[in-house]
Task: structure prediction
Amino acid sequence: MNRSSVLRSVLRSVLLLGIGFLLAIPAAGAGPGVKTLLIGGTPAGIAAKSTARLDFTSDGEMVFRCSSGEIRVSYQKVNTLEYGQSVSRRYAAAFLVSPIFLLSKARKHFVTLGYVDSEGKQQVLVFQVGKGDIRMVLAGLEARTGRRVEYQDDEARKAGGG
Result:
């Protein structure tokens, strides 16, 4: 090997390491859990339509972390789990890009979680989960709470893996 090929090899390695490092920074800063959109719920102090992280790493409770605060729910206090979808056609994309988009559907995945809070009051949280995370979230909730997920319809059952 001549000097220029060794130099190219070293530069390529440094470049790949640098790109890998830059890609890892946002993932490390995101914190534990799954990114969700907290649609709303009954607990006071939560802002509707806020981005939240659902964290399953604790043994005794799950934590929703959002900009307006934190909601902690004991797994033992969860009494209902429900999964459903909102399906719509992609009319805007069909109009702007191509009519072929009329053949596809946009799906949004929603989880409703009912639980009893520390004061003994029934509370509900509704959150939206991304397509790539929904099966993991449903399996995690079933495993941690010991409750079965109730599916709104057969389409939801297929998408949720139930």
In short: The first helix runs from residue 3 to 29. The mean pLDDT is 76. The helical segments are 3-29, 91-96, 134-145, 154-160.
